[in-house]
Amino acid sequence: MNNSNRLRIAIQKGGRLSKDCQDLLKQLGVKLNLREQRLIAHSTNMPIDVLRVRDDDIPGLVMDGVCDLGIVGENVLVEVQAERMRQGVPSEVTKLSKLDFGYCRLALAWPQELGARDKSWFEGKRIATTYPEILTQWLKREGINASTVMLTGSVEVAPRAGLSDAICDLVSTGATLEANGLIQGETILESNACLIQNKDLQDADKLALINKLMPRLRGVRQAKE
Ligand code: ATP
Ligand code: ZN
């Protein structure tokens, strides 16, 4: 558990969510000294420490209570949740708010030269993905027997490299798929960044601070509408 009396928030270190997370903290009035390339940044005006880590580590840090809050894509949250549930380790969090950045969808795609395909085409195929749990659950729901090939990066080159028949990857504009000669198919998950909290958090001071920040967050979100 996080025994520090400072509220600990996990955000992505260098990636698509980093800038939006830093901007959001600033809009909430949290002053940070993020100049150094350090793991922890201490707020200079509130009892808050910001931990900067890989996005994949954020749900686990919050579920295990190492961090009190975290900002992460729902795609990563759902994947880690399913994996941890299977392993029988704590997988619940309190979802405080959906955020207005990090929108993407997890979609199936296959080589353009195959032309239009429906779901039944995936029967017996190999699908490369970074999200094997979400994909496996979807395949099960759809009654499709296909195998998954786990890749943590460069998923879009897997069919060309002969590693898989198709892919299931994150898409925002579709430009990367097109550049790799792939056709986008069914979306299996829509995702935004979200703010999560450790579900067992009981420290009264930390809860009071969160209660102070939440109306500000709602204000920031409304101002954007
Ligand atoms: P890390 O080094 O932290 O593991 P990463 O390479 O896994 O980084 P990023 O590519 O920085 O992750 O993406 C972080 C998150 O941004 C994704 O998990 C997703 O929620 C969101 N996102 C939004 N648009 C896209 C997109 N087009 N492709 C990938 N992720 C996107
Ligand atoms: Zn990642």
Please describe what this structure looks like.
With 225 residues, the chain is of the alpha/beta class. It has two domains: 129 residues, D-Maltodextrin-Binding Protein, domain 2, CATH 3.40.190.10; 88 residues, Periplasmic binding protein-like II (D-Maltodextrin-Binding Protein, domain 2), CATH 3.40.190. It is built from six helices and eleven strands. The strands form two sheets. Strands 2-3-1-4-11-5 form a six-stranded mixed beta sheet. The protein binds adenosine-5'-triphosphate (ATP) and zinc ion. It catalyses: 1-(5-phospho-beta-D-ribosyl)-ATP + diphosphate = 5-phospho-alpha-D-ribose 1-diphosphate + ATP. Its cofactor is Mg(2+). Keywords: Amino-acid biosynthesis, ATP-binding, Cytoplasm, Glycosyltransferase, Histidine biosynthesis, Magnesium, Metal-binding, Nucleotide-binding, Transferase.
Q: Identify the overall geometry.
A: elongated
List how many beta strands DSSP finds. Answer: 11
**What's the rounded overall pLDDT mean?**
95
Tally the structural domains. Answer: 2
Order of helices and strands: EHEEHEHEEEHEEHEEH
SSE order and pairing:
Elements: E1 7-12, H1 18-27, E2 40-42, E3 48-53, H2 58-63, E4 69-73, H3 74-87, E5 93-98, E6 104-111, E7 126-129, H4 132-142, E8 147-150, E9 166-171, H5 175-179, E10 182-191, E11 193-198, H6 204-224
Parallel strand pairs: 1-3, 1-4, 7-8, 7-9
Antiparallel strand pairs: 2-3, 4-11, 5-11, 6-9, 6-10
Adenosine-5'-triphosphate (ATP) binds at residues 12, 15-17, 54-56, 73, 75-76, 102, 104, 170-172, 191.
